[in-house]
Amino acid sequence: MLTFPAQVEAVAWTSGVFDVTATGLALLTVLLARQLTWAVATRRAAVGVLAVAALLCKETAFVTPLLILLGQWAQERLSRREIGDVATIATLFVGIGIFRFANVPPEVDVTLSRFLVQRWLFGTVGALAVPWHREVTGRWFWVAILQVGGIILLASGFLVSTVRAPAVRASMAFAAWALLGTAPAMTFFFVSPNLEGARYVYVATVGYAVFLAAVSSALPPLGRAAAGSGLVLLVVLGVAGVRVHLGPWREAAATRDAFLAAVRRRVTPAALSRSTRLRTTSEGRTS
After folding, report:
1. Rg (the chain; Cα; Å)
2. What are the tens digits of pLDDT across the range 144-184?
3. CA dist., res. 143 & res. 285, Å (int)
4. How far apart are CA 96 and CA 13, in angstroms?
5. Which residues contact 255 (CB under 8 A, 6 or more apart)?
6. Using one digit for the tens of pLDDT, what is the confidence trace for 238-272?
7. Largest alpha-carbon pair distance within the chain?
8. 278: CB partners within 8 A, 6+ apart
9. Which of 125, 123, 181 is nearest to 151 (CA)?
10. Is 190 left (phi over 0), alpha (psi -120 to 50) or beta?
11. I need a surface site. Which of 138, 140, 148, 200 has the fewest CB within 10 A?
């Protein structure tokens, strides 16, 4: 997806377009807020329009005002006018949220509990740290171990190094972003072993990726060696993940091409089935 390309649900499954659009608009809102001069009324209004558009696409964009504040806090650029504008957007969002909760069907349980919060927290961290399909972890269990190992290397380099306060601030801000990204879906958040529900971590993956970048870029030379090894490992696994996770979609494309070719040639169903098997086998050998 946006930051971990092995999550191909967004581009291979058209039903995920709402989540992708909401995430894109939320990011545009944060980026515009970081770049504009808050004294310009039209630009301030544009931030509000983009934030509302993101919320209209998907309710998971409810945290957009908080993401704006985190981005500005990380750069130490918060001003009273900005806080006031973001508070106005947040008030509108809270009003919409209250209206939606007031119309929730009685059979839907939205009660928070300690276990629910724990499941959401562990689920978010697990989905970000090990974003692999069960067919991958089932066949190559060591992939998950390497993934976690790379993160541990990166975190260890950060913890044992002397890092300046701005870098610590940025790391904290985007770590909070990663958790806030899934907070609106807390009561029903779940990413299955076959990655159904991975769309709930689209916003969170952005904060997670920036967190990794902020941690690695702030390290001194000694810590950067360990962190660099972890980053290289994560990149290699990500590239391999793209190839593996796109496998079923490549097979589907082979079936489609075989079908269209059969229609053009007007061949028999038996020939179509044989052609599909040949194309799939050929694709598997190539990969």
Report:
1. 22
2. 888 888 788 777 777 776 667 777 888 888 889 999 999 88
3. 22
4. 29
5. 276, 279, 280
6. 777 777 777 777 788 888 888 888 777 765 566 55
7. 72
8. none
9. 125
10. beta
11. 138
| Amino acid (one-letter) located at 244 | V
- The rounded distance, in Å, linking the Cα atoms of 206 and 73 is 17
Burial annotation 233-244 (CB, 10 A radius, 16+ → b, else e): bbeebbeebeeb
Identify which of 11, 59, 27, 7 has the alpha carbon closest to the alpha carbon of residue 197: 7
182-239, pLDDT tens digit by residue?
A: 988 888 888 888 788 888 888 888 888 888 888 877 776 665 666 667 777 777 887 7
Average pLDDT, the chain: 78
* Cα atoms in the Cβ-side hemisphere of radius 13 Å centred on 117: 5
d(CA 241, CA 229): 18
| Residue-level pLDDT at 2 | 41
pLDDT of residue 79: 74
Return the closest-CA partner of residue 90 out of 132, 62, 113, 114: 62
Decide: 40 and 29 in contact? Cβ < 8 Å.
Answer: no
Q: Where are the alpha helices (DSSP H) in the chain?
A: 9-12, 17-35, 41-57, 64-74, 80-102, 114-129, 134-139, 142-159, 165-180, 202-217, 221-245, 247-265, 269-286
pTM: 0.75
pLDDT at 9: 56
Cα separation, 98 vs 260, whole angstroms: 50
